[in-house]
Design goal:
Blueprint lengths: L40 H14 L4 H11 L4 H16 L1 H12 L8 H16 L4 H15 L2 H14 L4 H8 L6 H7 L4 H13 L8 H12 L5 E5 L6 H6 L3 E2 L6 E4 L8 H4 L3 E3 L2 H12 L10 E5 L6 H10 L3 E7 L2 H10 L1 H5 L3 E6 L5 H4 L4 E7 L14 H4 L2 H21 E11 L8 H8 L5 E3 L2 H8 L12 E2 L2 H4 L5 E7 L1
Parallel strand pairs: 5-6, 5-8, 6-7, 8-9
Antiparallel strand pairs: 1-3, 1-4, 2-3, 9-12, 10-12, 11-12
Helix pairs in contact: 1-2, 1-3, 1-5, 3-5, 4-5, 4-7, 5-6, 5-7, 6-7, 9-10, 10-11, 14-15, 14-22, 20-21
């Protein structure tokens, strides 16, 4: 005989009422004939991506693969995309809602069931899906992927979630006051990231003490606003006008960029064959800046360029196109798999005559192995990715402050190696997709400040030359872009010349 507190393993508990008391088991609001027996393809796709992300996958890689595999397009693909990315973005808000509605901490809920609940919460609170349909379809998904017992639990919790509007839930679960904890939950960011972004806005001159709170809210909102698909027309291989004829629009900032408002970029012939690619405008203008800044004269021609951390190959693809007729490009990548991605991305440029070598190696060794060889070196350093949270929402939940120490040490070593590999008169571009001061200005200051053979250049002036419509906040020499100000990823750029 079991006591009331003993439960069969794996059997979910009945959720508590919002007031904290337990009541009788909730019955489904639908008649048995009306209940979905399984998830529809769009919801099942979103769930599959969430489970892959939980196991270390990347939504921006998994979702397109699944959409293509299921032959999903149009409204179904758009629904699956919004459901996937919206659920990942707003996890920090939905988890407290789910905890309240279920009467238990989310860490007490089986992770696959929790992902199903998050998908349902987003449909109820973040999408224009009727509550009854959101609950019924999500319960059908739970029955298929989590089991019948879990489906009853999902049904009860989501019915309670649907009893309140998003604003009512905000009023219920948000911490009191105006502190970082409230901002973090309201805008679904970890608290440490909110603090880091606030410090970065001040450090990079994008805000003053008086304006920083307003700027911070705008930045957090931009992180949760789905980004447009940006394309790059690799010079000499395809023109922006060609992409416009295929349904894109000229980009606002990058002279080689285009916006694809709808449709699958993989369906465009220039993207399929590598003449164009999906690439954020911020990344485009950084590569253009490195190619445009003057280097002091060299007896050797053509120049030699190096992309020290080339994977997965976006900036290398643009540099390869720009190098035709003027330089040889070495694309170095430490990961063999990512090096293969670089090779695939460079095939069109190589076919057009670009001299390119893709190799596998640790960029920290390049300065010792090839001292003083290169005219232009790009260090697109591994980083926390805090500048690309609108495109990679899962990154905000993966990164921790513990990652910073290892990353900043690696960034310093890569930049030092790049300087050693640059010939006198050559130029180094240090870039990160993060505004965090520990990964940006502190790295450049610590490495370049210890040398007497490095001159810091004005990155603002070079960016104005290659992208006249780009307005960079703050003053030089370094440049920091912002999603809420520039509608680009939060790219950082420092330009250094080897004396």
């Amino acid at each position: 005989m079991t006591t009331p507190d003993e439960r069969r393993p794996g059997r979910p508990e009945s959720p508590a009422r919002p007031g904290g008391r337990r009541g009788p088991r909730q019955k489904s609001a639908q008649r048995p004939s009306e209940r979905a027996r399984s998830g529809d393809p769009a919801r099942l796709t979103a769930y599959t991506v969430l489970r892959s992300v939980a196991e270390g996958g990347y939504a921006n890689l998994e979702l397109p693969r699944l959409l293509r595999g299921h032959g999903m397009a149009g409204r179904d693909a758009a629904f699956a995309t919004e459901l996937t990315y919206g659920t990942l973005r707003w996890q920090g808000l939905y988890d407290p809602v789910i905890a309240d509605a279920s009467g238990r901490s989310v860490d007490k809920i089986d992770p696959p069931v929790l992902d199903t609940l998050r998908l349902g919460a987003h449909q109820v609170l973040g999408m224009r899906v009727p509550a009854h349909a959101a609950v019924a379809e999500t319960v059908g998904l739970a029955r298929q992927v989590n089991g019948a017992g879990a489906a009853g639990f999902v049904n009860a919790v989501l019915r309670r979630v649907s009893e309140r509007s998003r604003q009512e839930w905000l009023d219920r679960v948000l911490p009191a006051g105006t502190g970082v904890d409230r901002l973090a939950m309201e805008h679904s960011h970890p608290e440490w990231i909110v603090r880091a972004l606030r410090a970065a806005l001040l450090a990079h001159g994008a805000a003053t003490v008086e304006t920083v709170d307003q700027e911070l809210v705008s930045l957090l909102e931009a992180d949760n606003d789905p980004a447009d698909v940006m394309l790059v027309a690799r010079p000499g291989l395809v023109e922006v006008a060609d992409l416009v004829r295929l349904g894109a629009e000229p980009a606002a900032v990058s002279p080689v960029g285009a916006v694809l408002r709808s449709g699958d970029p993989g369906g465009l012939a220039p993207v399929r064959d590598g003449r164009a690619a999906v690439q954020d405008e911020g990344s485009q203008v950084l590569a253009l800046a490195l190619a445009a800044v003057p280097v002091e004269s060299s007896d050797d021609y053509p120049e030699e360029w190096l992309d020290l951390c080339a994977g997965p190959g976006g900036k290398a693809g643009l540099l390869a196109a720009l190098s035709v007729g003027r330089a040889y490009l070495t694309a170095n990548e430490v990961s063999p798999h990512r090096a293969d991605l670089v090779r695939q991305g460079l095939r069109a440029a190589i076919g057009a005559g670009a001299g390119v070598e893709v190799r596998v190696g640790d960029g920290r060794d390049t300065g010792v192995d090839e001292p003083g060889r290169y005219d232009r070196v790009l260090v697109d350093a591994p980083c926390t990715g805090l500048g690309a949270l609108r495109r990679r929402p899962e990154a905000r939940w993966r990164r921790t402050t513990a990652d910073l120490a290892a990353l900043t040490e690696l960034q310093r070593e890569l930049l030092a190696s790049a300087i050693e590999a640059t010939r006198p008169g050559g130029v180094i571009a240090y870039a990160t997709c993060s505004p965090h001061v520990n990964e940006t200005t502190f790295v450049v200051r610590d490495v370049a400040g210890r040398r007497d053979d490095v001159e810091v250049l004005d990155a603002h002036a070079v960016l104005r030359e290659v992208a006249p419509g780009l307005e960079v906040a703050g003053e030089g020499p370094h440049a920091q872009l912002w999603p809420h100000r520039n509608e680009t990823d939060g790219m950082f750029l420092a330009l250094l010349r080897k004396r």
